[in-house]
Design a protein that fits this description.
Pept_M19, 9 strands, globular, Peptidase M19, TIM Barrel, metallodipeptidase activity, alpha/beta, Metal_Hydrolase, 12% strand, three-stranded parallel beta sheet
Length: 330
């Protein structure tokens, strides 16, 4: 089977978007369910998702492991895999790592833009690396099968996480900084080390991460994918669009500010106006996912490589990452 997987979205979910997932033939999507929410608030978001699974059972269902991708394709639905973009959901309690995994969380970033209890975010001026708690949480995440995501983390913290983790990590939504120097994009050293360790990179379509932003062409994007494949490895890349479809601009304030400041954190955009930039006109929503295939072929990828980038590489990673290892089961 060839799968279609998007490894990061944060949409304002609705029946319309669920239908578009099906029109785009997405078999699996990693969705952000929490940023700065604590454990109880995260559970409330999971309850909200349960209502959607009940209301739209012919469109979506909750995914727990890689076998759900096959079930999704055979039943014409999309498997939804939960993730967190900050460790706030586990609060300061390492025991909640296992609880969250049992509830269906499959990815957790060790930091968002700021310093967390675990690691440093990419907006901090200094990066002291992983904290003592961060090192312990990595071991626990490795044990239970919760993927370490370093998409928003700073350089040293990311390299230390790759080195310490006994399982490959993910950067679910970012691009090379040499292509576009956004704070969130990654250096060649990080990308090379990620690939050598067996980790995986999801390419982002969020305009702040793209050369020329909203005006980035599909050809330019796919040429960047081809160049990155030479650095990371063509089997270690996929899509993580960071699609924030239909989100109101005020959501940006929660994403960037949380509860840590009373001032507006304007983030990566040059304009001092918080909000979501328009997506490139060639990728307005999930229905455009398959259109990447032709452009990837045009820049030199073989058919098997295109299938890998559009989903099969993530499917392999899911199969290797979401369950506890036999040697760790007690």
């Amino acid at each position: 089977m060839n799968f279609r997987i998007d490894a990061l979205q944060y949409a304002d979910w609705s029946e319309k978007i669920f239908c578009q997932l099906r029109e785009g033939k997405l078999d699996g999507v990693h969705v952000t369910i929490t940023y700065h929410e604590n454990f109880r608030e995260t559970v409330l978001v999971m309850e909200k998702w349960n209502r959607w699974f009940e209301r739209f059972p012919n469109l979506i269902f909750q995914g727990f492991d890689a076998s759900d991708l096959e079930q999704a394709q055979l039943s014409g639905r999309t498997a939804i895999f939960f993730g967190s973009q900050n460790p706030s959901c586990m609060e300061d309690d390492i025991g909640l790592v296992e609880i969250l995994h049992r509830l269906g969380l499959r990815f957790m970033q060790l930091s968002y833009n700021n310093q967390s209890l675990l690691a440093t975010g990419c907006y901090e001026e200094e990066d002291p690396g992983l904290t003592r708690m961060g090192r312990e949480v990595i071991k626990e995440m490795n044990r239970v099968g919760l993927v370490i995501d370093m998409s928003h983390s700073a350089e040293r913290s990311t390299l230390e996480a790759i080195e310490l983790s006994s399982r490959p990590i993910a950067i679910t939504h970012a691009n090379p900084s040499l292509w576009h120097p956004a704070l969130r994009n990654k250096s060649n050293q990080v990308l090379r080390t990620l690939g050598e360790s067996g980790g995986i990179l999801g390419f982002s379509l969020y305009p702040h991460h793209l050369k020329e932003g909203t005006n980035c062409t599909r050809r330019s994007f796919c040429e960047m994918v081809a160049q990155t494949a030479e650095l990371v490895g063509v089997t270690q890349i996929g899509m993580g669009s960071d699609l924030c479809q239909d989100q109101p601009d005020e959501i940006v304030e929660w994403m960037r500010n949380g509860r840590w400041t009373k001032s507006m954190d304007y983030g990566e955009g040059s304009a001092k106006v918080p909000g979501f930039p328009p997506m490139p006109d060639w990728y307005p929503d999930n229905r455009a996912f398959g259109s990447l295939a032709d452009s990837l072929r045009e820049v030199g990828f073989a058919e098997k490589e295109v299938a890998g980038i559009l989903g099969n590489n993530w499917a392999r990673f899911f199969a290797e990452s979401f369950s506890a290892r036999v040697e760790d089961i007690k």
